[in-house]
């Protein structure tokens, strides 16, 4: 009788175990991962966005941060990105021309401004044609992201050229792989001055923002986002929708971004 009793118990436990597994498996299958290639200047904001997206949907974000040029080239070479957020339209345009993004998913997500920063505490300056930037640098260097490839560097060079300052400053520019690397040069004191996004400047208290470049001195700073072609991941559309939510907006605005997408 004991054998029959325990045999019945084990059968009931087995049924409960199968039912529990059946209930768990759909949730596991439903949870997915979205691989996002995002401009380095989005580092802090994307950490918050990742957490909030996971809380809202159960999906995970795998975020790869670098200069937009480097990320675009990786996508051109077949890197497994589900979604790309560039710090300027140019690199997104290049991918769209090659059929590497889904055009109908493209949206202008964010805006930004570029600022002149100094190591430690420093006085404010008026940024205009009369600014003696070469004199401020002396024998030292101006930290910038790569001026012909990385958006922050492209915008910075355009602003300096527009103000008539580029020719005198160009020999003193120390180019970094991305805007966060340029920020680090100033934060550590390796360069006394640098040009970065305002959102990057907010990431450390080791620098001072001493001036903001006039908006008309460079092209508008726009961060477009789009899904990458050929990726069969249903969670991508959920993430694109999430980027338009109040939770995402608050995360971006907290870091100083201008939210453009409604």
Features:
alpha/beta, D-Maltodextrin-Binding Protein, domain 2, 2 domains, six-stranded mixed beta sheet, 21% strand, ModA/WtpA
Write the topology of this structure.
Layout: H1 2-30, E1 33-39, H2 43-57, E2 60-66, H3 68-76, E3 83-85, H4 89-97, E4 107-111, E5 114-119, H5 133-137, E6 142-145, H6 151-162, H7 166-169, E7 173-176, H8 179-187, E8 193-197, H9 198-201, E9 207-212, E10 222-227, H10 235-242, H11 246-254, E11 258-259
Parallel strand pairs: 1-2, 1-3, 6-7, 6-8
Antiparallel strand pairs: 3-10, 4-10, 4-11, 5-8, 5-9
Helix pairs in contact: 2-11, 3-4
Give an account of the 3D structure:
The protein is of the alpha/beta class. The chain has 2 domains: 31-111 and 222-259, D-Maltodextrin-Binding Protein, domain 2, CATH 3.40.190.10; 114-217, 3-Layer(aba) Sandwich (D-Maltodextrin-Binding Protein, domain 2). It is 43% helix and 21% strand. It is built from 11 helices and 11 strands. It has helices at 2-30, 43-57, 68-76, 89-97, 133-137, 151-162, 166-169, 179-187, 198-201, 235-242, 246-254; strands spanning 33-39, 60-66, 83-85, 107-111, 114-119, 142-145, 173-176, 193-197, 207-212, 222-227, 258-259. A 6-stranded mixed sheet has the order 2-1-3-10-4-11. The longest helix is centred in the first third of the chain and has 29 residues, at 2-30. The termini are far apart. InterPro entries: ModA (IPR005950), ModA/WtpA (IPR050682). Belongs to the bacterial solute-binding protein ModA family. One of its GO terms (biological process) is molybdate ion transport.
